[in-house]
Structures are given as structure tokens and as C-alpha cells.
Please model this.
Amino acid sequence: MSAVEKKDLLYKGKAKSVYTTDDPDHLILVFRDDTSAFDGKRVEQLSRKGAVNNQFNAFIMERLSEAGIPTHFTKLLGPNESVVKKMSMMPIECVVRNRAAGSLVRRLGLEEGMVLSPPTFELFYKDDALGDPMVNESLAQTFGWATADQIARAKELTFEVNDILKDLFDQGDLVLVDFKLEFGLFNGEVMLGDEFSPDGCRLWDKETLKKLDKDRFRQGLGDVIEGYEEVARRIKVPLDLV
Ligand code: ADP
Ligand code: UDP
Model:
């Protein structure tokens, strides 16, 4: 692929800006320092976040790709920017949980940290105004968000990602509690899109259960990006923040 340059801003999301390029099959994702929670109702700037998440995501996407997961990730372009395949995104979030936390604890009145065996799989409809409501395969098909086959493939890939990443984080003495993935279609194939970073998962220290993910922001615990950097250091993500 030749040099890729940003053309037009296609979409400005809560954390990333998406640009078209000269190549119709590729986009540039710019990871910003904006940090949001509660469906965008709280937004703050956290220094270094864009660069940490971009480089963290690149590392994870490369590990997943090596393990056979089809992903949109093409290459790192700069500290805050990556080139990805331009996909038609399914407007749904796939969530797998290995331990109870967050909305599952609230919904079912569970104790945080309860081990979930087998791990759970949930779908949420991506719509901030509606607060990303929980949905299911039937609703996704009826409303044309994805076909039954596409959902089955996304679910299969999400569980494969869980197996790969549980091991990877375990090597850094971290528990992968839960995470969210987004999938899209590229030439008709379901591929992993968006990002995998501490913004979209829960990671706890194996011994102390200290939170090292976005819950530090949601719960006002402080040292949010320091937590992300600690995770990066433990799993040997090379961070180059200049
Ligand atoms: P949000 O839309 O939730 O505010 P972001 O700020 O992360 O999220 O914005 C990034 C947007 O880019 C998301 O809507 C995501 O679905 C979309 N996206 C991610 N990867 C791709 C891709 N490969 N092709 C097209 N769109 C993508
Ligand atoms: N998640 C996400 N984006 C969302 C909603 C959830 O990345 O819009 C991630 C979240 O970080 C966690 C997992 O998905 O790792 C499960 O989130 P949950 O349903 O518990 O919701 P929360 O309580 O985090 O809002």
C-alpha cells in the first residue's frame, strides 16, 4: 500500500475521528484524548489517551490477526492514527463476560467478580440516545442490523478472541473480566473492526483485583491512563508517545 493521507472527515465519534483516504477501501482512524462515559453524558480530555489506545489497539489487533482472526487493522500511521479497511459496520456491540461486572451486576443483582462459566454473550444496539439497549439475534435480524449468519460468525469470533486474549492478559497477571467488540463487513466477510483497548474492556490485577481499565474513569478512581499504561507495560505493548 502506498502512502496514505487523510482526505475528508467522515465521522466524529466520541473517542475517534474517521477520515476517508485516497484509497476507497481504506480509512484512517484518529484516536483522540476525549474520554466519555455514560453514553457520552460525561466527557473529559485525558492526556496521552489517544496515543496509548491507538498503539494498544494496534498490538492487540496484530496478535489477533496472527491467531487467525480477520480484522480491519492495516497499519499504524502515527502515534494517534491507524489505517483500517473501510467496512460497513453492524450497529451492534458484542459483549463477552468471564466475571460479573457493570450492567450485568446491576441488571441481575450479582456480586461483582462472580466467575461466569461458561462465559456469557450479549448484544447491544449502538444508539447513544437510547443508551445502547440490550437486544438479541431476533431483533438484529428483524431490524436489518445483521443476518443470522453474520451474527453467528460475530459470536464465534468474539468467543475466539476471548480465548486468545484471556491467555495474553493472564501472562501479564491480569484478569480479562469482560469486553466489547464491533464487527463489520469487508467484501462480504465479517471482520473485527473498531478498537480493543482498556476503554472497551475490564482488566483487573489477578492478585489484588485492582481495576486498570475505564472503570477508573467511570468510578472516579483517578490514574486512568496510568492504569492503561500499566496494562500495556505488563503485556509488553511498545508505547511510543512522541
Ligand atoms: P462512537 O461511534 O461509539 O462514538 P468512536 O468515537 O470510537 O465511537 O468512533 C469510531 C466509529 O468508527 C464508530 O462508529 C465505529 O463503529 C466506526 N468504525 C470503526 N472501525 C471502522 C471501519 N473499519 N470501517 C468503518 N467504520 C468503522
Ligand atoms: N462497553 C463498551 N462500550 C459501550 C458499552 C460497554 O466498550 O458502549 C464495554 C465495557 O467497557 C465493558 C463491557 O463492554 O468492558 C461490558 O459493559 P457493561 O454492559 O457492563 O456496561 P457498563 O456498565 O460498562 O456501561
